Amino acid sequence: MGRKRKGRSVRNNKNQGSEPEELVQAPHSFVISKGIPDGNLTELTKDFRKVMEPFTASQLKTRKKNTLKDFVSIAGALHVSHISIFSKTDLGIYLKIARLPRGPTLTFKVQNYSLARDVISSLKKQMVVDEAFKHSPLIVLNSFSGEGMQMKLMASMFQNMFPTINLTNVNLNDVRRCVLMNYNPNSKMIDFRHYGIKVLPVGISKAVKKVVQGKVPNLSKCSDISEFLTKSGLLSESEAEDDPNNHVILSQKMVSRGNMEFGKSSIKLSELGPRLTLQLIKIEDGLMDGEVLYHELFEKTEEEKEQIRKKREARKKLKVKRKKIQEENVKKKHEKSNNKEEMHIDDDAEYYKEEVGEEPAEDLFKQKSLKRPRTYGFKNKKFKKDHSNS
């Protein structure tokens, strides 16, 4: 026989076992949905996965019987550090963000949301580039410097969900998206926005910019190219609409045409979606089940917290005790089944000795393995009978 051929997945995985260190250390994530099935919730989950690209399981398939333990068990092998769970109940839609494998867990209520397709369709000029999702977005936090333990935990959780950027060796061509988290101290709401970043040259006319960017101009109304370039009133898009505060001096050469190193360019943002308005409900110390460190709606006294802590410790001890009892019962069951087989053999031997009057042979009452007779591939009984007579 020839050598067994490798499977398709093994053949396609050329870099098996040789992941770079940056990829291993980058925070990875799972984004799933639970609770009442809903089409919009499923699409919102996919949109949030798109935001977390490329360090997320974009094609993750889940089932109703999957539990949190299933995802935690494979998180270590896949370098997954965070899990985001969208769930729908009768009271509304909730988002839980947890650090794997031991927490903490932040629970948010989704007050309002808009899907990515609705956001993009509402824009006059759409900018969706697949190349932008090959690199992680830039995270921007606003007004998260307030007092309180919950503010520090939220800021730390959001920052650690995305890879850190080293300003000394960052490549500006890789910064194509940004995620904005804006906290409103008055309403205690968090506005989540996802933008695409576009860099445009500044200081050239609209006609010149078309030529520089490789676009074919329409010269039907011009006698020659010079008339097209010297038309008055054709300012560039960045000069006509942008605020001078958006102008920056590039420290690197950009891939896009017209943007030169140490030249002035303008930063434009185009929303990609989804939009989310989040309200922090509670923070738990463990993974979905632990001591409540903060709760927005309820406040318990120290005595109530101590009672809850004692009940939680009692449940943990009871769980350990039940597990130990179960292991002992399984062990006793195996020992009992083995003893029954030995007793059965001894009883048969004693009965034979009393009836016959002599000791039985050693292999008389030993259990023999049941083996099917060899048919040599003949399934037809008549065929076997005829050949046995011959």
* pLDDT averaged over residues: 81
Q: Give the % helix.
A: 25-40%
Distinct helical segment count: 11
Q: Which residues sit in consecutive blocks of at least 5 with pLDDT less than 50?
A: 232-241
Total count of strands: 11
Q: N-to-C terminal Cα separation, in Å? A: 36 Å
Describe the structure in your own words.
The protein is α+β, with helices and mostly antiparallel strands and 390 residues long. Among the domains are: 20-199 and 270-295, Rossmann fold, CATH 3.40.50.10480; 302-356. 33% of the residues lie in helices and 22% in strands. Strands 1, 2, 3, 4, 5, 6, 7, 8, 9, 10 and 11 form an eleven-stranded mixed β-sheet that branches. A hairpin with a 4-residue loop joins strand 6 and strand 7. Residues 232-241 have low confidence and may be disordered.
Write the layout of secondary structure elements.
Layout: H1 8-12, H2 21-25, E1 28-35, H3 39-51, H4 68-75, E2 80-89, E3 92-99, E4 105-114, H5 116-121, E5 138-142, H6 149-160, E6 177-184, E7 189-201, H7 206-212, H8 225-229, H9 237-241, E8 247-249, E9 264-271, E10 275-284, E11 292-295, H10 302-356, H11 381-389
Parallel strand pairs: 1-2, 5-6
Antiparallel strand pairs: 2-3, 3-4, 4-10, 6-7, 7-9, 7-10, 8-9, 10-11
Protein name: Brix domain-containing protein
InterPro entries: Brix, PPAN-like
Biased composition (Basic residues): 1-11, 314-324
